[in-house]
Amino acid sequence: MPVVEDVGAADGGAEVLDVASDVVGAEDAPSVGAGGEPETAVVDAGSDDGGEGAVPVVEDVGAADGGAEVLDVASDVAVADDALPADTGTEPEAPAVDADTSGLAGLWKLIVSEGADALAGEGAVSFAGFRVQEVLAGGIGENTAVGRTAAVSGYIQLTDTALVVTKVIVEMGTLRTDDSHRDHHMRESLNTEEFPLAAFTLTEPIELPSGGSKGEPFSGSARGDLTIKGVTNRAVFDLQAQLVDGVIVVVGSSGVVFSDYGVPTPRSAAVLSVEDEGVMEFQLYFAR
Fold first, then answer.
1. Are 132 and 275 in contact (CB under 8 A)?
2. Helix ranges (DSSP H) in the chain
3. Model-level pTM?
4. Which side of the chain, N or C, has fewer Cβ within a 10 Å radius?
5. In angstroms, rounded to a whole number, what is the distance separating the alpha carbons of residues 240 and 227?
C-alpha cells in the first residue's frame, strides 16, 4: 500500500514521492471503503532506495488544522474558465463522459480526505504541499520547512492511450507546517485572504504505457499552467503514476521560484532568511 514517508531531509533537496515496487500486491493496495476512499497509512520510514518504477516519497509534517491558505488562486484569477469552481466550493465541475469502465478511458475524480485536519491518519488520502530551505537565527543553522494540506480537489480524463485533461485545485489557506508562527507569515506572503486557491491545468496530453490498465507503472512529465496568488506561469511536474486496485496513484514534484508568482519570502525573528526557490509536491489518488 502506498505510504507517505517522513523523510525529513535537511539539505533542501526534493524528497521523492514513491509508490513502492510491491504496491501492485492486492494486500498492499489501498482498499476502498464504504466512503469510496482508499485507506492509506502514514509511517516514519528512513531513507528509501526505491526500485524500478519507484515514485517520489513525501514528508508528512503533521496534521493540518483546517483554515484556508496555501496554494492560492482567487476566483477572478486569469486561468482557464473551467479551471476554477463555478460556485463558492473548491470542487471543479467535471465534464460528462461515457460510463465505460473496461479500460483507463473516462473521467477519474480526485479522492479527498474528510478534511484538512485529517492529513495524518487513516483519513489522509490526497495532499499537496511545498518544501523550502530557511536559515535560522542564533547560529542554529539551516532547516527545511515543509508544508502540507489535504484540501485538494479536481479530476483527470483519460483515453486508453493518453492523459488528456487534468485540473487540480488547492486551498492555500489550509497549508500547515510544524510552526504556527511560520504559517502566519506564509499566509501573509501568499495573501490567502485575497487569493485563497491555487490551480494546475494540463496543457499538453501525456502518452500512457500500453500496460497502464494492468498496473504498469508510468513515469513522465506533466506540462501545464500553474496559478499561485493570481499569477499564472507554465510549469513542469515530474510525476510517477500507477493503477492499484482500481485507484490511480499519482505523485510528483516541481521546482518553483516564489518571486515569479509575486510571493515575497516570509520574514520572522526566528528566521534570518528563506530561499526564493522551493519545491511543490503532491500525492493524489483518483477513482471513477
1. yes
2. 180-190
3. 0.65
4. C
5. 22
Decide which of 231 and 14 is more confident: 231
Domain 62-287, what architecture?
A: Beta Barrel (2.40)
Gap between the Cα atoms of 282 and 274, Å rounded: 21
Place of cell 466512503: 35
pLDDT tens-place string over residues 161-198: 999 999 999 999 999 999 898 899 899 999 999 999 99
- The sign of the dihedral angle between the CA atoms of 78, 84, 86, 87 is negative
Report phi then psi at 75, rounded to 5: -65, -20
**Residue 22 in grid coordinates:** 510491491
Burial 143-177 (b: 16+ CB within 10 A, else e): bbbbbbbbbbbbbbbbeeeebebbbbbbbbbbbbb
Residue 79 corresponds to which cell in the numbers above?
486561468
Q: What radius of gyration do the chain's Cα atoms show? A: 18
Amino acid 13 reads G
